[in-house]
Structures are given as C-alpha cells and as structure tokens.
C-alpha cells in the first residue's frame, strides 16, 4: 500500500475494524517515512461469470435492478430490494467461491424473493427456471400452495403446544 502523501511503498497498520455489514475491513495506516495517516477498506472480490464468458465484479445494484422488474406493480420497496440483494450476496459469499455463474445468482435470488413476494417470485422464476408451458407455472403455484398449507399446519400445531 503506497502512502497517498509521499508515495512511500510501505505503511504500518495502526488499527483494524470490521465494517458494519461484516463484509469489509477498515484499516487505519501510518506511513513510517512521512508520518501521514490514512484509511483503507478491504473487501474480498466476488466476480460473476456471465453467459458470454465475460467476468465482471458482483454488483448488488444489478441484483436489485433485475428483481425490480419482477416486482413492478407489487408492494415491494427499494429498502426491501436492498435487503434481498444483501441476503443474496451473503449467501454467495458463504459458498467460499470467488467466482460464480450469473445463472447461479439468479437461482440464489429465488428463495429470498419467494419470501418477499410470491407473484414477483413467479415472474422471476419463469425466466431463471426456464418455464416453457402453463404446466410449469401450475407446478410452481402448486408448490407454493403446498408450502402455505404446511406452514399453516406447523403454525397451528405450535399454538396447540402452547395451550
């Protein structure tokens, strides 16, 4: 790390702290030559391999813009989309891989989006799971209904246990 004041190629770390989101480290540094102090922020790089083979840095904003299209006309706020994008990034980082296929990102969006808004989920899933017919939609809707029924049974048994 070069000193931004005198361009000395050496610096000493004085303090290190994890950022609020836990995805980066802020380091306070001091130049041994001029004594200047400066901060750096370090993050682990996460790259996306697109279908064309091009590699680019992961972008929460791109996740949000892609999901925003599926959420048009739905009661979903930008704050909801920001939380979803953060959940997706955290899930991808937990895989431990520094590169991930763009399609894998699309698939990793499905779970959090399903919890956020089921109509938007169906819109998004129809693209990323390559729905080809009405039967594909019927199967996805049947799965959503089955999951709703399962949650209702689980919720009622939980309340029975409490009484």
UniProtKB/TrEMBL annotation:
Keyword Metal-binding annotated: yes
GO terms for biological process, alphabetical: negative regulation of DNA-templated transcription
Domain ATP-cone: 46-136
Co-factor: note: Binds 1 zinc ion.
Parts of the chain that traverse the membrane: none
PROSITE patterns, alphabetized: ATP_CONE
GO molecular function annotation: ATP binding; DNA binding; zinc ion binding
UniProt KW keywords: ATP-binding, DNA-binding, Metal-binding, Nucleotide-binding, Repressor, Transcription, Transcription regulation, Zinc, Zinc-finger
Repressor in keyword set: yes
ZnF bounds (unnamed): 3-34
Required cofactor(s): Zn(2+)
A Pfam family hit: Zn_ribbon_NrdR
Function per UniProt: Negatively regulates transcription of bacterial ribonucleotide reductase nrd genes and operons by binding to NrdR-boxes.
Similarity comment: family membership: Belongs to the NrdR family.
HAMAP family recorded: NrdR
Protein name as annotated: Transcriptional repressor NrdR
Gene, per the UniProt record: nrdR
């Amino acid at each position: 790390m070069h000193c931004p004041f005198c361009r000395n190629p050496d610096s000493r770390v004085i303090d290190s702290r994890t950022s609020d989101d836990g995805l980066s480290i802020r380091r306070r540094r001091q130049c041994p030559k001029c004594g200047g102090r400066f901060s750096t922020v370090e993050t682990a790089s996460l790259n996306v391999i697109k279908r064309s083979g091009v590699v680019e840095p992961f972008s929460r904003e791109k996740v949000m813009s892609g999901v925003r299209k599926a959420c048009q006309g739905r009661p979903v706020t930008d704050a909801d989309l920001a939380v979803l994008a953060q959940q997706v990034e955290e899930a991808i980082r937990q895989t431990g891989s520094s590169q991930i296929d763009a399609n894998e990102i699309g698939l990793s969006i499905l779970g959090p989006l399903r919890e956020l808004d089921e109509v938007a989920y169906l819109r998004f899933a129809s693209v990323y799971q390559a729905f080809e017919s009405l039967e594909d939609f019927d199967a996805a809707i049947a799965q959503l209904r089955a999951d709703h029924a399962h949650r209702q049974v689980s919720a009622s048994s939980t309340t029975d246990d409490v009484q």
